[in-house]
Write a structure and sequence with these properties.
This protein is of the alpha/beta class. Among the domains are: 180 residues, Toll/interleukin-1 receptor homology (TIR) domain (Rossmann fold, 3-Layer(aba) Sandwich); 164 residues, P-loop containing nucleotide triphosphate hydrolases (Rossmann fold, 3-Layer(aba) Sandwich), CATH 3.40.50.300; 151 residues, no CATH class; 187 residues. It is built from 30 helices and 35 strands. The strands form eight sheets. Strands 13-14-16-18-19-20-21-22-23-24-25-26 form a twelve-stranded parallel beta sheet. A five-stranded parallel beta sheet has the order 2-1-3-4-5, sandwiched between helices. Helix 4 packs parallel to helix 5, helix 16 packs parallel to helix 18 and helix 21 crosses helix 23. The two termini are 27 Å apart. Keywords: Leucine-rich repeat, NAD, Plant defense, Repeat. InterPro entries: Apaf_helical, Disease_R_plants, Leu-rich_rpt, LRR_dom_sf, NB-ARC, P-loop_NTPase, TIR_dom, Toll_tir_struct_dom_sf. This is TMV resistance protein N.
């Protein structure tokens, strides 16, 4: 790391009185999309708050009030002098106001000379002399004001600053940012909060451990250890938040143990690489591939890796090769790895450089934390001083125990406090668990049940999912969860995930076991495969079991008899994944009629027990099951909301579900033997999603009900489906209709024109569909955003007999009047088109247009497609000229926009293209502005990367990018394609070579 230990910990407050750290004065037309764009991004990356004006603020000649306030509220002024800076009276007035606010004792003013000689600015020569001559000739400004501008320019230009002509821009920007950081001080001190009492002493010591050794040549590995509840995770997270801005690659895995149990070695590796490379959907097939990727992509990265809750040394063996040093060797110089574990032996076995032992809170910090929780302030109320002291003596300085106990006593009277103290004294062991048990005992019965459910099953789960399950269980999740939050028994983070401390989880599980610790069939909850296996193998009556959730990944093959399931008369929730390898035996005579949630992946039986009455069933999910029919008789389903039998290849018949008045989602994807679904299904008044994808035997659909509110209908791959019932026109709420690869579908009903809410229509692969002209009539569907007709019958005609027909079809889709105003993507590739209608040029929302592989010679004007970022014309062998391209690209430039749209102009293999000089000019102009727009986002992922030179008319134009970790790596490939593929047969508009 380039920083020292002091840089990590010592933070100043010198800039705390200013609203902004930096105000940048620049002429927008000169540098907005180049130098200053990169400068702003670099400042932002380092957490430096810079005022960034909107383009619309700079209008007229008077300085806008917003800018005046920003100038007066800024600590540092950066003035970017460019060639035409002085021609802007706005800039000159802005500079004069900056000079008036500049006070060397409290503020800083730093000039930057961008592509201009500093002497020209100081002496008002060259372009600056011409600009002032024009100001005087205009007679719009008083001589006094012009003289003030001259004086200010000379003074500011005489200050020490930077000349960008002598260095690469990234190097200059880095120096500027470092200078500003040294001025404004550290912006990353963690504000005082309830869970950070006493943290500063930890930070001071840790900073020394992290920064020991030759900083630029070493990768530091530091372990943090201590007992449960002492604040290891809080310390690790706070340290990560404080110093992560100084690294170009970061990763924080908050529960390595849980991730390893669920997804194994590969899962931990994938999460580490996904975060470090900032790629959410990273594809890694095996550990060897991940190891290679780490070596390739992280060896130059200055990375911060925090691995929390490691409880087995094998969890750190995430790469092939030598375990103890491979992760260290994969990272670049200055990297830091922090491993948090209760077990020091794991840290020592891994070979950490230092171990930091987190200590218990001292008496003062313990009192501070308790007061924050029990009184919501920093002092003890007089009537509670003695009780506070006695209670704290039982907490032994453990932050978690103090928080939980203090929260449970908030707003309680002295009687409750004394009662809590008596409970602690009566248990002579005075263990931490006894302290935590006090809070549990004070909960109402329903809240105890919610607490136990979360501890056993839902720790680190998405809160909305937990609410659904708790609702199934008959609880009030909104109120119950808030009670637990208020008592510091759980947390809900900013991403809406529920968290519970490991000690509280251990407490909860001990409560479940306490009456019969060695007899799991007597417990209320089963969460461990080994315990479940014992219950099944011993075939014991398990009438107390209410919830079974088995998610832990296990490679051990077990054989189980399932007879014991029939004895679980109180079972309300059953969740069984395919991660557990089991051979089933025995019979399943009955199920609990109390079941509300039933999830069993690869359910082995052919039907549900005949005696099962699903009155309370809310969700039934049997993925990839062996089921042929759910049941034969009519069963009441008054509470069913979701039914998912996807992948059940033996399913031949659906039961009557007309009583399922609250059914919202039905998923039968991949039920390849199902021939019909029954009328009762499409009469469910609450049904919003019906998925019949790849129901290859499905012959027809029943008529849809008039009151159906269906929003999504997926019929993709229903190969025997020939017709759609005309009643589909009654689906006024339908947003998505997917008929992809319905290869025998011959027609669409006219009633489809009544689908005014339709946004997405997929007809690709419908090779026998003949009445596609109906699509033209859909122009009144104002919400329609996407139509996919790839593989429609017109695609399978020969060129001679097809072109006229297809030309007519495309004209139907795009007449002279504007339709489909929301469409962003249009793919008409390899359709044998000989002409493209003019209407394509008025589809103003179009971002991607693929016309490759067609036979047209010319294209309509595309100048109005201001959002167009990708145009594909490759293999258009008759194309003679390029159309007029957008003169200005206007779209939101977030960091993922360009990466997702794969920007580029693809025109290779167009041998008839003439007037190549004009094509070169036009294509180069459009692509350069596309580059500028795409560069105006967080820069490239790879460290020290420079985009390669582009050769154009023997001139070399260099676009370089700053280093960052926040851009998806795919943008590199996309931007290269942008250049590499601007070629056509016999030559190239541009070529690309490696930057030396």
């Amino acid at each position: 790391m380039a920083s020292t230990s002091n840089a990590i910990i010592q933070c100043t407050s010198s800039s705390s009185s200013f609203e902004y750290d930096v105000f940048v004065s620049f002429r927008g037309e000169d540098t907005r999309n180049s130098f200053t764009a990169f400068l702003f991004e670099a400042l932002k990356k380092q957490g430096i708050e810079a005022f960034k004006d909107d383009k619309d603020i700079r209008k007229g000649e008077s300085i806008a009030p917003e800018l005046i306030r920003a100038i007066e509220g800024s600590h540092v002024f950066l003035v970017v002098f460019s060639k035409d800076y002085a021609s802007s009276t706005w800039c000159l007035r802005e500079l004069a106001h900056i000079w008036n606010c500049f006070q060397p004792s409290t503020r800083h003013l730093l000039p930057i000379f961008y592509d201009v000689d500093p002497s020209q600015v100081r002496k008002l020569s060259g372009d600056y002399e011409k600009a002032f001559a024009q100001h005087q000739q205009s007679f719009r400004f008083q001589e006094k004001e012009i003289n003030t501008w001259r004086e200010v320019l000379e003074r500011v230009a005489s200050l020490s600053g930077w000349d960008t002509r002598n260095e690469r821009q990234p190097a200059v920007i880095d120096k500027i940012v470092q200078q500003i950081k040294s001025i404004v001080g550290c912006k990353f001190s963690i504000p005082a909060s309830d869970n950070l009492v006493g943290m500063e002493s930890h930070f001071a010591t840790l900073s020394e451990l992290i920064c020991l050794g030759p900083v630029n040549d070493d990768v530091r590995v530091v372990g943090i250890t201590g007992m449960g509840g002492i604040g290891k995770s809080a310390l690790g997270q706070a340290l990560y938040e404080r110093i992560s801005h100084q690294f170009n690659s970061c990763c924080y895995i908050d529960d390595v143990s849980k991730l390893y149990k669920r997804e194994g070695r590969l899962g931990v590796q994938k999460e580490l690489l996904s975060q470090s490379l900032n790629e959410r959907n990273l594809e890694i097939r095996n550990v060897s591939d991940g190891t290679h990727l780490a070596w390739k992509r992280l060896h130059n990265a200055e990375a911060l890796i925090v691995l929390d809750n490691v409880d087995q040394d094998k969890q750190l063996d995430m790469f092939t090769g030598g375990r103890n040093d491979l992760l260290r060797k994969c990272l670049g110089r200055g990297s830091i790895i922090i491993i948090i574990s209760r077990d020091q032996q794991i840290l020592k076995a891994y070979g950490v450089d230092d171990i930091y032992q987190v200590k218990l809170l001292n008496d003062n910090d313990a009192l501070r934390l308790f007061c924050k929780k029990a009184f919501k302030n920093n002092y003890t109320m007089s009537d509670f001083e003695k009780l506070t002291s006695d209670l704290l003596s039982h907490c032994q300085g453990l932050p978690l125990a103090i928080e939980v106990l203090g929260s449970s006593l908030f707003d309680k009277d002295v009687f409750h406090w004394r009662s809590a103290l008596v409970s602690l004294k009566e248990n002579k062991s005075k263990s931490i668990m006894d302290v935590l048990r006090i809070s549990f005992d004070q909960l109402e019965d329903t809240h105890k049940e919610i607490f136990l459910d979360i501890a056993c099953f839902f720790n680190d789960e998405y809160v909305e999912h937990v609410k659904e399950v708790l609702d199934f269980r008959g609880f009030n999740p909104e109120y119950g969860l808030q009670v637990l939050v208020d008592k510091s028994l759980i947390t809900i983070d900013d991403d809406d995930f529920i968290g519970m401390h490991d000690l509280l989880c251990d407490l909860s599980k001990s409560i479940v076991r306490e009456k019969s610790p060695r007899k799991p069939w007597k417990w209320s909850r089963l969460w461990d495969v080994k315990d479940f296996h014992k219950v099944m193998s011993d075939n014991k009556v398990a009438e107390n079991v209410e919830v079974i959730i088995l998610e832990e990944k296990s490679d051990i093959l077990r054989t189980m008899r399932f007879d014991a399931l029939s004895t679980m008369s109180s079972l309300k929730l059953f969740y069984f994944t395919n991660w557990i390898k089991i051979n089933f035996s025995g019979t399943l005579a009955k199920f609990s009629n109390e079941l509300g949630y039933f999830y069993w992946e690869k359910y082995p039986f052919e039907c549900l027990p005949p005696s099962f009455e699903p009155n309370k069933l809310v969700e039934l999910i049997l993925l990839k099951s062996n089921i042929k029919q759910l049941w034969e008789d009519i069963k009441p389903l008054p509470n069913l909301r979701r039914l998912d039998l996807s992948g059940s290849k033996n399913l031949i018949k659906m039961p009557y579900i007309g009583d399922a008045l609250y059914l919202e989602s039905l998923d039968l994807e991949g039920c390849i033997q199902l021939e019909e679904i029954g009328l009762s299904i499409v009469l469910s008044p609450k049904l919003t999603s019906l998925n019949l994808r790849n129901c290859k035997s499905l012959i027809k659909l029943p008529p849809f009900g008039e009151d159906l509110i269906l929003e999504e209908l997926v019929l993709e791959g229903c190969q025997k489906l020939r017709h759609i019932d005309p009643s589909i026109g009654l689906l006024k709420k339908l947003r998505e209709l997917n008929l992809k690869n319905c290869k025998n579908l011959v027609s669409l009903p006219n009633s489809i024109l009544g689908l005014n809410s339709l946004q997405d229509l997929n007809l690709s692969g419908c090779s026998k569909l003949y009445n596609t002209e109906l699509l033209y009539e859909l122009r009144d569907a104002e919400q329609l955003k996407k139509i996919d007709i790839d593989g429609a019958p017109i695609h399978f005609q020969s060129t001679s007999s097809y072109s006229r027909q297809h030309q007519k079809s495309v004209s139907c889709l795009m007449p002279s009047s504007p339709i489909f105003p929301c469409m962003s993507k249009l793919d008409l590739s390899f359709c044998n088109l000989v002409e493209i209608p003019d209407a394509i040029g008025i589809m103003s929302c179009l971002e991607r247009l693929d016309l490759s592989g067609n036979n047209f010679a010319t294209l309509p004007n595309l100048k109005k497609l201001s959002k167009l970022v990708c145009l594909k014309l490759q293999h258009c062998k008759q194309l003679k000229s390029l159309p007029e391209l957008p003169s200005r690209i206007g779209f939101v430039t977030d960091s993922s926009y360009c990466a997702l749209r794969q920007p580029g102009l693809y025109i290779f293999n167009c041998p008839e293209l003439v007037d190549r000089e004009r094509c070169t000019d036009m294509a180069f102009s459009w692509m350069m502005q596309l580059f500028q727009v795409c560069m105006h986002v967080p820069p490239l992922l790879l460290p020290s990367l420079s985009l390669s030179f582009f050769v154009y008319r023997n001139q070399e134009i260099t676009y370089r990018c700053l280093c960052s970790t926040r851009w998806n790596c795919s943008i590199v490939t996309n931007m290269e394609l942008l250049v590499q593929e601007v070629k056509y047969q016999g030559g190239s508009i541009m070529s690309m070579r490696e930057n030396e």
